[in-house]
Amino acid sequence: xxxxxxxxxGYDYAxxxxxxxxxxxxxxxxANYNDGSAIPSELDNGTWSSTTEGAVTVYDExxxxxxxxxxxxxxxxxxxxxxxxxxxxxxxxxxxxxEWTTLIDGLGESxxxxxxxxxxxxxxxxxxxxxxxxxxxxxxGYRGSSGDFDDGGNYGYFWSSSPxxxxxxxxxxxxxxxxxxxxxxxxxxxFSVRCVLDPPPSMTITASEVx
Length: 211
Known about the structure:
15% of the residues lie in helices and 24% in strands. It contains five helices and 13 strands. The longest helix has 9 residues, at 97-105. The termini are far apart. With 211 residues, it is of the alpha+beta class.
């Protein structure tokens, strides 16, 4: 049932029903794909900026705040990891660009949905939204395609599974604004990831031949 916790790779994720969609209410933090194989991690800047394989990191990896950032914000994944189709548990997937649009349009469209999506001041971890949706978006920052970390505590970046030429579509929320921006970015960028429940299989109707 949506709203129940989902256990995956040793962690229990809160879920939330928003409109007709069921979402993870926390950022992904798994270090393995759903087949148990490890996602490459601890890549130095040179490797991070050149790889075309899936990769994962934690904001400020190797720094004093790595453990706190992992606890609060989960992990950051490049789009090659998203594109494996194996980041989310079975029955769930990284949302398409269109699924993000459905979510955002249902919460007041891109000019206003940020407040409803962002965690509130009374949430833990906190942000500056109202969180009326229960999505609890956080400002996890990102790891750029050059390997540098930036924007932690101020911006939240969320991948879609939809490519845009040699880039891929994502959404960004930021402090002090209700806007949700739709942008396309370098597939080597490391962003937060949410999972959404697979839609039920559609009924296929076979038309019998009419004589």
